[in-house]
Amino acid sequence: MSKIEAKTLSNKLAPYVNKMQTSKIANGISGGMMMAMPVTLLGSFAALFLNLPIGAYKEFIASVGIAAALKMIIQFTTNFLAVIFTVSIAGSYAKQYEEDGIFTGLLALVNFFIVTPVAVSAEGVTSIPVQWLGATGIFTGILVSLVSTRIYIYLKQKGITIKMPESVPPVVSSSFSSLIPGLASAAVFTIVSAIFAATSFGTLHQFIYTFLQIPLQGVGGNIVSIILLWTFAQVLWFFGIHGTMVIYSVVLPIFTAMDAAQLAAFAAGEALPNITGRAFVSTYTMSGSAIGFALLMLFVAKSKQYKTLGKLSAVPSLFGISEPLVFGTPMVFNFKFFVPFVFMNAINIIIAYVLTFIGLIPRVNGMSPVSGMPIILSGLMEGSWKIAALQVVFVILSAIVWYPFFKKADNEAFKIEQESENQAQEA
């Protein structure tokens, strides 16, 4: 494929990719999850500090009450993510329509609890089981937040509201204008809750978990799917499109639910249920698995062009920032580096999966990826020095795979530079 043909294909793909990236639903979900990132990080660090594999440390935090405090944090962060995401996604989705995110978030929260079962003890005490408030209820939370907010926005934008005189203060007028759309949204979920209560599922939560969340995690978290998706992401990067963002706009809810279940199990000291997830991909594909290439440019390059690029891109790459490498080299429409750029992620993912599957490397604990976290440290935070060591192995492997492609390009660049210098001297 020539560069002209590649650009033509890129122009054809761009409208579809842009439509996906500008989708109000996709942006609402991803924006809401990013909004909740500080809370998820808090739960991640609490789980990490609770489970540091040091006997004396564990005895100390248990004796002084720190362990109990950390468990309480986990209960209302990691094990409360369905509730948190319901509020944050509803608010983010409403902002796509320039509507009030606070009220829609509260409305979605009410609707979430309407469809959540309650338990009544023998003494007549009513309680809400925590079963659906964490990882297992995330997909219900997403669905409730989107539908609840969309009903509210539709009715409000259609003018089906209580209109107050202009003399009424704006705060009061806004409250009354939200009344009918809010009641209608709550009524819909009340009916839905009653319908599912009369079925064998019992709740909307159980239905969604059985027919949506488990199958989607099975497909989206399948190793074959992940290899194909992240290879496709690199193809999009090659065409100048932010492939990672495109893929995450589709799989982020699936991966987030998987990582939440992973982290909850880690915090409880139980066996980790998943191998893959967002944490798995982020841990083993930092900087598009091209850190070795950046280090080659820094330490091995003969040409000034690649030596300079190495100085600019090596450190950011170690911290998971790939843009200087991708656009500085550039990788976009650069067929010299097509093979390692597109397929290196898949190589790392396959190796990491196999080593984890056979038990040589422990499963990542599902800790939310922290932007700018350097390799090794990010591996340690996923629960084991072995994970960090594998990251280092992948850097060495990427340098080996990239070397022949880099060496050829570097020699060509060096030759051109030498010819330019000779011509300048002759002139």
Automatic annotation (TrEMBL):
GO molecular-function terms, A-Z: protein-N(PI)-phosphohistidine-sugar phosphotransferase activity
Cited Pfam families: PTS_EIIC
Gene Ontology annotations of biological process type: carbohydrate derivative transport; phosphoenolpyruvate-dependent sugar phosphotransferase system
Membrane topology: Multi-pass membrane protein
InterPro entries, alphabetized: PTS_EIIC, PTS_EIIC_3, PTS_IIC_cello, PTS_Sugar-EIIC/EIIB
GO CC annotation, single: plasma membrane
Highest taxon in the source lineage: Bacteria
Localization of this protein: Cell membrane
Keywords attached to this entry: Cell membrane, Membrane, Sugar transport, Transmembrane, Transmembrane helix, Transport
Keyword Transmembrane: yes
Functional summary from the UniProt entry: The phosphoenolpyruvate-dependent sugar phosphotransferase system (PTS), a major carbohydrate active -transport system, catalyzes the phosphorylation of incoming sugar substrates concomitant with their translocation across the cell membrane.
UniProt-listed PANTHER family: PTHR33989, PTS SYSTEM N,N'-DIACETYLCHITOBIOSE-SPECIFIC EIIC COMPONENT (PTHR33989:SF4)
Identification of the protein by name: Permease IIC component
